[in-house]
Design a protein that fits this description.
Elements (H helix, E strand, L loop, with lengths): L1 H12 L1 H22 L11 H23 L2 H10 L9 H15 L1 H13 L1 H7 L12 H4 L3 H9 L10 H40 L1 H44 L1 H10 L5 H18 L5 H13 L30 E2 L2 E2 L15
Antiparallel strand pairs: 1-2
Helix pairs in contact: 1-2, 2-6, 3-5, 3-6, 3-7, 4-5, 5-11, 6-10, 7-10, 10-11, 11-13
Subcellular location: Membrane
Membrane topology: Multi-pass membrane protein
GO cellular component, one term: plasma membrane
Length: 354
């Protein structure tokens, strides 16, 4: 149990490893579901194609949507896309990078399902059995004498071993269609692998600087959201703790003061510890001690996030901790939009008439 908890904490702290693990589990689940799935072709001309193609398309679409649902970055992407601009502008390249990253991971399980289905060939046989040219498999005079409707009904029964009487035709047709299905499966795997190679290898070679920039800021958006949630949880915990303490102090103020007076000479060290805890809780409140103020902070965070330009606090005796917003560019050697005062040197100029 402890090992499982440590593994879960590691995956939770490392978002990329966690999502790769989820994609791997989904890929294995898709292959396992197909092996456990009972394939039953209806063997009717009206439904064979719909059933075979539906089995090839509908489950991959479900796995693709499930990949988006299980990816935590979807909410980050939607929040970044719909948020007001405010003080921080939006970068479309970051949104594109996040969307492409989510899409790539979500396509793994559908690709595995399609590959396994094509390699097996049952759905392909069910969908295209009525399109076979039966003359390729031998000279069968009884088939030529059939009408088109009866011939389609006969061909539709090829995937069903119990319903088709002529086993030689069924075996030959099944092998023929399964060979085509497997060829399509290998072509599909080759295309997916080649596309993944292009995405993973060639794109960073041409736009490495832009790729690193978008990757960095996409990670920043995700980490910032997590840190904001953690800060809100810490603030809510401290706010609730102090609120409950003040409630009990107001209800039983006299009894608590009397009890504290009797044991004051015994528990001086305990009182110091309590004061330290209270001071730490007060620090976690960050000066926000009212519901309306907290609502305003949360609303401002959504409507106008702070600009991504950190400012250094100037702890001078005159301004006593004012932010560098009043002294723009102090790091670069500017203060209040001007250069620092430099000691002027006096120059004496002498003119000679000689």
């Amino acid at each position: 149990m402890d090992k499982f908890r440590m593994m879960f904490q590691f995956l939770q702290s490392n978002q990329e490893s966690f999502m790769n693990g989820i994609c791997g589990i989904m890929a294995l689940a898709s292959a396992q579901m197909y092996s456990a799935f009972e394939f039953s072709c209806p063997c009717m001309p009206e439904y064979n194609y719909t059933y075979g193609i539906g089995l090839l398309i509908v489950p991959p679409l479900w796995f693709f949507m499930l990949g988006f649902v299980l990816n935590n970055n979807v909410s980050v992407l939607a929040e970044e896309w719909k948020r007001p601009t405010g003080k921080r502008r939006k970068d479309p390249s970051i949104l594109r990078y996040m969307f492409c990253s989510i899409t790539q991971r979500s396509l793994i399980a559908p690709a595995v399902w399609v590959s396994v289905t094509l390699m097996d060939g049952k759905s392909f046989l069910c969908a295209f059995s009525i399109n076979l040219d039966i003359d390729r498999f031998g000279n069968y005079s009884f088939i030529r004498e059939m009408s088109e409707t009866d011939k389609m009904k006969l061909l539709a029964k090829i995937p069903c071993k119990d319903l088709f009487e002529h086993q030689e035709i069924r075996v030959a047709a099944s092998r023929y269609i399964k060979c085509i299905s497997q060829a399509c499966g290998w072509i599909f795997l080759l295309m997916m692998t080649f596309t993944a190679f292009l995405i993973r290898a060639i794109r960073p070679c041409f736009t490495q600087a832009a790729f690193l920039k978008t990757k960095y800021w996409s990670h920043y958006v995700d980490i910032e959201r997590k840190m904001f949630d953690e800060t809100c949880k810490e603030h809510a915990k401290s706010f609730a703790k102090i609120c409950i303490q003040q409630y009990f102090e107001n209800i039983s103020g006299e009894m608590r003061s009397l009890h504290h007076h009797r044991r004051s000479y015994k528990n001086d060290s305990d009182d110091d510890d309590d004061e330290d805890k209270k001071r730490s809780d007060e620090d976690k409140l960050l000066g926000i001690r009212a519901q309306d103020d907290m609502n305003k902070v949360l609303w401002n965070w959504h409507t106008s996030k702070p600009a991504l330009a950190l400012r250094k606090e100037q702890m001078d005796g005159e301004n006593n901790g004012r932010l560098n917003g009043e002294a723009n560019g102090t790091i670069n050697g500017f203060a209040k939009g001007h250069t620092h005062d430099v000691g002027k040197k006096e120059w004496a100029v002498y003119y000679s008439k000689v």
